[in-house]
Amino acid sequence: MQRLMSTSSQHLAGFLALIILLLLFTANHAVAQNSKQQQASAKTSQQLNEIQRAINQQKKALSSTNIKISDLQQHLKADDIAISKISKKLAQTSSQLEQVSEKLVRLTTEKKQLQTAKLQQEQGLAKQLRAAYSAGHHDYLKLMLNQQQASSVQRTLTYYQYLNTARIKEIERFQATMDKLYQVEQEYQAKAEQLAQLTESQQQQKQVLELSKAKQQQTLKALNSKALTGQQKLAKLEREEQAMVKLLKEMAAAAQAAKNLVSLSKLKRKLSWPVKGRISHSFGSRKQGYLKWKGVFIAAPIGRQVQAVHNGTILFADWLQGYGLVSVIDHGDGYMSLYGHNQTLLKSVGDRVEAGEAIALVGQSGGQSKSGLYFEIRQAGKAVNPKIWCK
Questions:
Q1: Where does the record locate the signal sequence feature (predicted)?
Q2: Among candidates 108, 333, 83, 119, which has minimal Cα distance to 219?
Q3: 118 has a pLDDT exceeding 50
Q4: For residues 339 and 326, is the Cβ–Cβ distance under 8 A?
Q5: Cα first-last separation, the chain
C-alpha cells in the first residue's frame, strides 16, 4: 500500500512538473511572441513615421517650388512690362526719326531751290548793275539839260525810274530769298541735331531692350528648370484658363452698356487676320490633358504690328498670367476679340479702335518660348473658331 502511494505521488509529481514545464514554455513562447509583435509594431510605426516625414518633406518641397514659381511669374511679369515700355519708347523714337528724316529731305530740297534762286537773282542784279554802269555816271539834272526836246527828257526819266524800281524789287526779292535761306539753314541744323539725339537715344533704348530680354530669358530658364509633371502642368493651365474665363465674364458684363457698336454677326469670312503668320495651334486642338485651344496661335516675328480685326473699344489692356500682355476689344452685341503674348500694347482701356488699326506689337510675353500672337473670338462669353470670321 505504501509502495502504491509512493508510486502515485511520483506520478503526480511528474505530472505537476510537466504542467509547470508546459506553463513555462507557454509563458516563454507568449513573451517571445509578444516581443516579436512589439518589434513588428515598432518597425511598422517607424516605417509609417518615415512615410509621413517623406510626405511632409514632399509637401514642403512642393510648397517651396510653388512659391518659387509664383515669384518667378512675378519676375516674368515685371520683365514683360519692362520690355513693353522700352519697346513702346523705341517705336515712338523710330517714328520720330522717320518724321525728322523726311523733314530733313524736304529742307534739303528747299535749301537747294533757294540756293538756285539766290544764284539767279545775283546774276540778275549783276546784269542790271552792269547796264547802269555802261549808261554812264550821269545824274538826272545833267540828263535833262543835255536833252533837246521835253518828250525825250520824259522818256529818259521814265526809263530810269523803271530801271530803278526793277532794281529795288530785285534787291527786295534777293533779300527775302536770303532771309528764307537763313531760316531753312537754321531749321536744317536744328533738325540735324535732333536726328543725332534721337539716333543716340534709339541706340541706348536698344541696349536697354536687349538687357531686358536677357533678363526675361534668365527668368524663363529658371521657370523651365522647375520641372512640372503632366498633372501639375494641367493644373497650372486650368488655373490660367479659369482666370481668363473669369476676366472675360467681367469684360462681357462691362460691355453690356455698349449698344452702338457694329456686331460681328454678319461679318463671317469677311474679317482679316490680326497678324500675318502661320497658325501653329488651331482652335479645338489638344493643349494639355483634356484641355483644348480656345483660340489660335499665329507664329509671327517680334515687333510685327497686331491689328484690330474690327472696330470696337478696348476693354482690357494689361498683363495676365499665362497669356502675357493682353488686349481685349469689345465689338458689341456680345462679341469680343482677344490678343495675347504681345511685346507691347499700343492702346489703353477706353480707346476706340477701327478695323486694321495697330493695337499691339507681336512678342512672346507670358513665358512663351516662341514669338507669336494668341487670338480668340468670343460670343456671349463662349470661345468660337476664329476661322469662321477671318478669311
A1: 1-32
A2: 83
A3: yes
A4: yes
A5: 127
User: From CA 359, how far away is CA 322, in angstroms rounded?
Assistant: 20
Q: Supply the pLDDT for residue 132.
A: 64
Helix (H, G, I), strand (E, B) or coil at 204: helix
Assign 203 a pLDDT band (cuts: 50, 70, 90).
confident
In this predicted structure, what is the pLDDT of residue 328? 95
109, 117, 173, 199, 244 from 113: Cα distances, Å? 6, 6, 14, 28, 60
User: Quick one: pLDDT at residue 294?
Assistant: 93
CA angle 48–50–53, rounded 5-degree value = 110
Q: What value does the mean pLDDT of the chain take?
A: 76
- Pick from 239, 125, 128: nearest CA to 174: 125
Residue that is written with C-alpha cell 517571445 in the block: 32
Q: Per the structure block, which three cell numbers stand in for 293? A: 485651344
pLDDT in tens, 339-371: 999 999 999 999 999 999 999 999 999 888 899
C-alpha cell at 45: 510605426
User: Which domains does the chain carry?
Assistant: 71-225 (1.10.287), 230-388 (2.70.70.10)
3-state secondary structure of 176: helix
Give just the sign of the alpha carbon dihedral 265, 267, 268, 272: negative
Phi-psi region of 279 (alpha: psi -120 to 50; beta: other; left: phi over 0): beta
Distance, CA of 210 to CA of 193 (rounded, Å):
26
Side chain identity, residue 156: T
